[in-house]
Amino acid sequence: MLSFIAAVAGGTAPDWLEVAWWTRKRRLWVTHRTITHWGIGWIVLLVCAYRWLGYQHPLAALAFGFACGGLMHLLADWPNPLGVPWIAGRHSLNWWNSGHCDLLIVGASWAAAWMVAGHVWLHGVHGFALPPHWRAG
Q1: Is residue 92 helix, strand or coil?
Q2: What is the distance between the alpha carbons of residues 40 and 84, in angstroms, rounded to a whole number?
Q3: What angle is formed at CA 39 by the lines to CA 129 and CA 94, rounded to 5 degrees?
Q4: pTM of the predicted protein model
């Protein structure tokens, strides 16, 4: 449950991390879609948090959920013309402008999460079981 709550916060984090909350005017302290939208940083956080899960670190579930949410935000921003800086430069899929088709991204994300959760917790009861050669044995 903590991972889910952290994922919701992480889903908006790349945008609210840009705001200078410590100032009275609350302006951006960095340019929109720069360092807070950097793909490598979010991937590193995800990998580290995943490793911390194995050590049962107390903040691992929060960090993992937060990183998942942040990456989902980047995936949702990637199709529009401004794009996101994945590695060094900004990249865009240039499929649509911001505000269009966002529901498609959110719906696809929920469907993927439902299939993964169904496979993990319900053992493929929805018919979305992994092929036998993909399963750990």
Answers
A1: coil
A2: 11
A3: 85
A4: 0.71
Helix (H) or strand (E) holding 84: strand 84-85
Residues in Cβ contact with 83 at an 8 Å cutoff, skipping those fewer than 6 apart: 33, 77, 90, 91, 92, 93, 94
pLDDT tens string, the chain, 137 residues long: the values are: 788 888 888 888 888 778 777 777 767 777 777 778 888 999 999 999 989 988 888 788 899 999 999 998 888 888 888 888 888 888 788 887 777 677 777 788 778 777 777 766 666 555 555 566 665 55
Buried-exposed string 97-106: b where 16+ CB fall within 10 A, e elsewhere: eeeeeeeebe
Residue 52, both tokens: 């911390």
| Sequence ranges of the domains in the chain | 2-97, 101-137
